[in-house]
Amino acid sequence: MKHVSSAAPLCLFSALLMLAGSRPAAAHDGPDGKITHKRKEVRTQPDPEQEWRDAEVGDLVYKLGRVNTLADSTAAVVFRDDSSVAMRADTLLIIYGHHALRNKKLVATGAGLERGALRARLGELEAMTDDNGRAAVATPGATTELEGGNSLLKVDDAGTSRIHNHGNGNATVAAKAGGKTKVNKGMGVKVEKTKRAAKPIPLPPTPSWVAGPEQFLGVSGRISALRGGWGTIDKANSYYVEVAADPEGLDVLSAIEVPKSVENFEVHGLPPGSYHVRVAAVDNDQFESIPSDVRSVELLDVELVGPGDVGPIWPEGADAGLAPVPVVLPGTALSLPAGIRCGATAELLEARPLFIEQGVHELVCQNDAGDAVVSFPVRVPDLAPGLRDGEASGPDQAKAVEVVRGQRTTHELVLDTALALPEQLYLSAPEGVTVESVTPGTQPGTWSIVLLAGPTAAPEAELGLSFLAPGTSQANTQFSTVSITIVEPPEGPTEPAKPERHMFEFGVAGGLVLLSQTHGLYHSIDTAHQPFHRPAGEFVLRAGYYPIRWVGVELDGRVIPTRVANDARATAYSVRAQVLGQLPYRVTPFIVIGGEMLGVSSGPAAVGKDTDFGAHAGGGVKFYATKRVALRLGVTGMFHEGLGTKGAVHLEADLGLSVVLGRRSAGRKR
Asked: Cα(171)–Cα(155) distance, rounded to whole angstroms?
């Protein structure tokens, strides 16, 4: 049985509060009942002077007041004597009379049932027996007097009444067509609308519960399965099952009649909490057995905690069904309530189990008492990890990744999945192999990793993948591996050094400068023009970045100590920004072009202080002696403002040494 809402037969009955006994009783002006439970849409009219409104738990009902449950709704009303009425769907309760008191004790209650089913729980009423207190229920063919106990009355579409005595109280049935009979516990009697009462017959045997788990794990709003089973009753034509939120069975959440071939219940869609289930056997004449003992089951809320706070993926639509199987990332933990432990087997129980391996996981769970607890399946997908060269494309992506021993190599790790993934991925390597860095890539599900294989690394190695940091769990947290092949460096001469993309060069140089005799480097207000001594020495600092092998950008600064014609000291200097074009060879010619600020700093006896802005162009040659060191020779012409209206052209030549950084791999196979 898979059912959420109640599906009870339509019933219409009126509660009638009658007087009984030989002495008069006093009326009262207080409420006659209170709504103690409700599910879904329930309406009430507390008394005839008020309008209908939505009912709430705790609402009071007075004389001639009404309570109405609509489709798939249930409610319960408790009267002043603590007797109760469980209202099923499409039920109307009308309080016609009033409670009667004698010596501050209630002496009688009553009800009228026109169609459907009514369960009355009156208790033993021991305090009323001296006053002959009783309850009377009128049906189309009979009147039933009840003294305590638990009784079930049914009226079918033809008006036939079936009265069941399910408790220890007394039940007497008087047919309107004549005849009166007493119905003992475990017996039932049928009264057709225009006929005398039939003889009482035994009710079907009460079903017994089959032993099984009483605690179930669920996820709020997603998974909430409760189930159980009972033994076969040969005389049963069907079974009637009620699931209630309270042990007394007043707050009914689900009620359904199932065929005799069904001997279990399964309920979905309930929030975490405790629930109480009863089952009764129904014979082919619609007589119901005494309900079974209550089976109390508990739904415990758990949480799936994914690595990096990435939660599970829940199936939607037709794929979800009543019991969806969540898809979780490897490394997801099941957060359990205190006292519950789960694991792959009964020998591997944990308070916080992890889902690591690919596939569907069915956990075994127990509580501290050793009783079984029912869990739910969880699926871990295959993330299909792959390792490839960062520059590989097409068929090259499928080739095995080779790592040159003793050389750092950069590769791309890819997980083939549409699931959201955490940014952090952890790699473990065997002895001799070092994972130097793991950096998220530009595309989701990719990481750039740098590997270094040492002299002790085996020719074939596997890298373990995990979303959990080392030491998170004593268990193995690796969800998969990727393979690498360790190869030896090539024998013989290695490939000569030459420009690569994303290189940096930092260098120093010394040289000679021929400053023009018609230069404009003097402070015209308080000094006179004087030519500089020629040639002058210079000291150079430079830095360059080469995004591609053919082109780079550079900055350099120059200091030129010199003297002027009267032998006074002066220091010329320049700051340049330039673009460099080169050929990608070990010995590479280059050209430069850019802008320059040329200045001088000296005393009044020389030329004072002045700066000019101009352009420069030149060329030269670089020689990459090793992969980390380059020699550089260059000649440049500088074009600036000159004396008067003339321009000035300065020449310089320098020879320097540069350090090369940023090569992606000192011996990477290209």
From this structure: 17
